Amino acid sequence: MEAKPTEGIRVVCEYPDVFPDELPAPIAKRQYRVAPKEQGLIKENIDELLGKGFIRPSSSPWAFPDGTRRMCVDYRSLNDVTIKNKYPLPRIDDLFDRLQGACVFSKIDLRSGYHQPKIRPSDIPKTAFITRFGLYEYTVMSFGLTNALAYFMNLMNKVFMEYLDKFVVVFIDDILIYSKMEEEHEEHLRLVLQKLRDHKLYAKLSKCEFWLDQVPFLGHIVSKGGIMVDPGKIGGVMDWKVPKLRFIESFSRIAKPMTSLLEKGVPFNWTKERQAAFDELKKRLTTAPVLTLPDLTKSFTVYCDASKEGLGCVLMQEGKVIAYASRRLRKHELLCMLEDPEALSFGNKCEIYTDHKSLKYIFTQNELNMRQRRWLELIKDYDLEIHYHPGKANVVADALSEKKLC
After folding, report:
1. Model confidence, pTM
2. How would residue 203 be classed by pLDDT, with cut points 50, 70 and 90?
3. Tell me, what's the pLDDT at 290?
4. Which of 80, 127, 155, 277 could hold 255 in an S-S bridge, CB 3.0 to 4.6 Å?
């Protein structure tokens, strides 16, 4: 008898997990070397998580290194063999569309949101992490797991499904309750809080805001009058001082009066004409482009730079500006290694352009310091690709990083 193709056998198709392409063996990594001072902090974190029931002692064959003050486990190897959950985040512009006509708002932020969902018992051993004090595993969802974000978004949508787009919008662990009349807001708020109680989800009161006529939400200020960009998002541009030579060149096509300063032998003389050109440049950078809402179905580009003055970056999509950001380096950050400030300036596909070439390899290098591991945990939910971009061409981010910040 001629053998049947396996795809035609119904019973085989019912058990695809019995026939994997490769046999997934448990992954075990050696623990990171940690400074004696930080060993005490790790022990405190372990004791706290044990006391809350978030972790338990383990004898799992899986083991991933830990070593951060926030218990950020390096799950890169586990994430590489994990089937990705493609549950989407909502479009931000769609969420804002639902707020039309609302005049009163309340915002709820969940407490340690990722630690609230339980992990399926059969998957608990896969979360095992190794420390100097032993092997432990999470009983609740952990930071660093690649599907944590998608799972949590799915959970929140299920909890509030009957209220979504009526008087509730949810983005991960941020819950916004909105009402068109103050009289009905109390009932809306009560219904949301009852849902949280029914599903044993807990909020952090200090991060919640109630009965507001305007509220910051997802980088914007939402009010009865409409939606506007949070002024803090463009402050980095509006506060620019007179530019230095090193980032004028790429502005020359827009700010022609400034290009003569690049000529050999020309002294740096900042005239009224050049100031007017620079003011126009700031105006263009902070009007229509900054109001562009991100399209979550498309990829993003981040241009970032760091200097002794601070950090700067620009988030763009298809050549349009989504947001600007800049800040001054803190004292302890000034002591970082050369590559660290650039990484300080770092979910959809996102391309990051930096003028520090070694950052291209942060996802693959074996030895990471404590600070780098925390950054890696922070960005693990995102599909990132890092490219080298010469500083000479990385003008806007470079300007933001060089700007003296208060």
Report:
1. 0.50
2. confident
3. 41
4. 277
Mean pLDDT of the chain: 70
**Site of tokens 């291209």:** 360
* Nearest partner of 93 among 180, 192, 222, 207, judged by Cα: 222
Sign of the C-alpha dihedral, residues 31, 32, 38, 42? Answer: negative
Burial class (CB in 10 A: 0-12, 13-18, 19+), 30: exposed
Q: Take residue 14 and report the two structure tokens written for it.
A: 């019912």
Strand, helix or coil at 29?
A: coil
CA distance 173 to 348: 18
Higher pLDDT, 292 or 17: 292
pLDDT tens digits, one per residue of 238-251: 666 655 433 333 34
Q: How many residues does the chain have?
A: 406
> What is the C-alpha to C-alpha distance for residues 75 and 143, in angstroms, rounded to an integer?
9
Q: What is the pLDDT of residues 29-84, one digit of tens each?
A: 555 555 566 666 767 777 777 777 777 665 544 444 454 455 677 778 888 888 88
Q: What is the 3-state secondary structure (H, E, C) of 247-300?
A: HCHHHCCCCHHHHHHHCCCCCCCCCHHHHHHHHHHHHHHCCCHHHCCCCCCCCE
Q: Which two tokens stand for residue 329?
A: 């380096």
Return the H-helix or E-strand segment holding 168.
strand 168-171
Using one digit for the tens of pLDDT, what is the confidence trace for 114-141? 778 888 888 888 888 877 777 888 888 8
The residue to which tokens 């998002």 are assigned: 233
DSSP string for residues in 287-356: STGGGPPP-TTS-EEEEEEE-SSEEEEEEEETTEEEEEEEEEPPTTGGGS-TTHHHHHT---EEEEEES-
In angstroms, the CA 373 to CA 361 distance is 13
